[in-house]
Each structure stands twice: as C-alpha cells, then as structure tokens.
Amino acid sequence: MAVQVSESDQIKQFKEFLGTYNKVTENCFMDCVKDFTTRDVKPEESSCSESCLQKYLKMTQRISMRFQEYHIQQNEALAAKAGLLGPR
C-alpha cells in the first residue's frame, strides 16, 4: 500500500523544507557568528552553530512526538465517542 505524492505536493514540501532550513541557518548564524575580521570560523562559533542546530533538531523531534501523541488521543476519543472502542 504505497502512498504516492503528487509532484505539486513534493514541490510544496521541498519549499517548506527550504524555508525552514533558511530560517534555522539565519537564526544560528545571527546567534553564533560574531567576528567578521577573519575568513576563518572560530572554534566557539563552530561549536555554537552545532549546538544551535542540535537544539533545533531535538525541539522539532519532541514537538513531532507530542503532536503524534495528541492525534492518537484525539482518534481514541473520537472512536470511544462513536462506540468503536471498549472501555480501557
């Protein structure tokens, strides 16, 4: 049972991904890069950028998990209301 995604949906998803990527990149850059007197990235800037990205990824994963939990609870509540599930 493969799910086919239309080309327009793929383009929309890619645009959303690029928007998110650009936002994260800009936020982490603005927070972490402070010295423009050299071409080299300083170690503290590099570690700050890595931490910023890790924090974003963990936050996104946590929100996704909570969103899934919420949907499961909502579906169970609707099923129970419709009499499809027995008491727990």
From TrEMBL:
GO molecular function, one term: metal ion binding
Cellular localisation: Mitochondrion inner membrane
UniProt domain Tim10-like: residue ranges: 9-69
Pfam families tied to this protein: zf-Tim10_DDP (PF02953)
Family, per entry: Belongs to the small Tim family.
Free-text comment about domains: The twin CX3C motif contains 4 conserved Cys residues that form 2 disulfide bonds in the mitochondrial intermembrane space.
Name of the protein in its database record: Mitochondrial import inner membrane translocase subunit
Top-level taxon of the source organism: Eukaryota
Keyword line: Chaperone, Disulfide bond, Membrane, Metal-binding, Mitochondrion, Mitochondrion inner membrane, Protein transport, Translocation, Transport, Zinc
Entry annotated with the keyword Chaperone: yes
Predominant location: mitochondrion
GO biological process: protein insertion into mitochondrial inner membrane; protein transport
Subunit structure: Heterohexamer.
Membrane disposition: Peripheral membrane protein
InterPro entries (alphabetical): Mito_inner_translocase_sub (IPR050673), Tim10-like (IPR004217), Tim10-like_dom_sf (IPR035427)
GO cellular component term of the entry, any: mitochondrial intermembrane space chaperone complex
PANTHER family, per database record: MITOCHONDRIAL IMPORT INNER MEMBRANE TRANSLOCASE SUBUNIT TIM9B
Function, as annotated: Mitochondrial intermembrane chaperone that participates in the import and insertion of multi-pass transmembrane proteins into the mitochondrial inner membrane. May also be required for the transfer of beta-barrel precursors from the TOM complex to the sorting and assembly machinery (SAM complex) of the outer membrane. Acts as a chaperone-like protein that protects the hydrophobic precursors from aggregation and guide them through the mitochondrial intermembrane space.
